[in-house]
Write a structure and sequence with these properties.
This protein has three domains: about 70 residues; about 140 residues, no CATH class; about 110 residues, Arc Repressor Mutant, subunit A. The protein has 17 helices and seven strands. Strands 3-4-7-5-6 form a five-stranded mixed beta sheet. Strands 1-2 form a two-stranded antiparallel sheet. A hairpin with a 4-residue loop joins β3 and β4. α1 runs parallel beside α4 and α12 packs across α13. The protein is globular, with a radius of gyration of 20 Å.
Amino acid sequence: MSSHWIPRPFIDAPLRGAAGLGLNPHHLWAAAGLDPAILNNPDGQINANDYASLMAVLWAHSDDELMGLAPVRSHSGTFAMMCKAIISCSSLEHALHRARRFYALFDGAPNIRVIHGPQLSRIQIEHDMSCDPDHFLSESLLAIWHRLSSWLVGQGIPLLSVGCCYPPPAHAVLYQNLFATPVKFNEDSTYLLIPSRVLTLPVSQTAASLRAFLNHSPADFLARPNPHESMTGKLRQLFRRYDIACLPDLAHSATQLGVSGATLRRRLFDEQTSFQKLKDECRLEEASLRLAQQDTSIREIAEYLGYTETSTFHRAFKKWMGLTPGDYRSQQQGIRR
């Protein structure tokens, strides 16, 4: 979704939801003007523009902004009315609380909650997942609320981590591009972890800017890179251009990002992370990719990532993912069966 090419799981899931509403995926595909050969190819992908068109067609034909992935429909225009209700709020926290009150008017709608802490806070998203077996609605709500929040305050909100109250899906590796932050599975709730200070940021958008914004949203949230990406997100994207064994140092990374080393260090500190912490997290993300394959031993993965002791890798991975490397590999193997 943050990639310019949309992976197949993010195409198939909303089409399955639409089919559950009685719509024909092939007709939706044609209405969006897309090549039918791509739909018939199990590995076919589409670009961001085509994906935005497909989502707009799906919402228009289904009259359901939740895409058939919730027990009740959220009729077309609901998201726009919610945005109009919160645009006059004084701060991000005020806007999130008003959004919660807005959606509480509709039975079965997702619930948005702010769990406030002294340093870290959660934007918690609660919804009935019984109609969302692929977790696409969960993924979409997380992405939309992070990007909407960033747009409201006119700057990238640092995303410290994402929590999902479900096991890693078969396409969990795609979360790296979607969220550009560590994702924890089997959590007690589904949430975005952010610095508490951003909740006090003023809403900088206006009714005029909202009108332009609604011409392309929320479809663009799902299809295109985040224009308000934080420095943490930018650095993660930079790291992904390199082999894990050859990640750039701070000075080179700063040059690539167009800032000084001191500025990069300060921006990361403001976002409650550090250069070394992000490097370590990228190593663990690479570990999850390799563990999903069965042809490399855990010892070999640890060595490839630069761990001199396999036990150190075990501890680091479990702290990050909540599972040992062996348990994670077994779980991924079971998902694919």
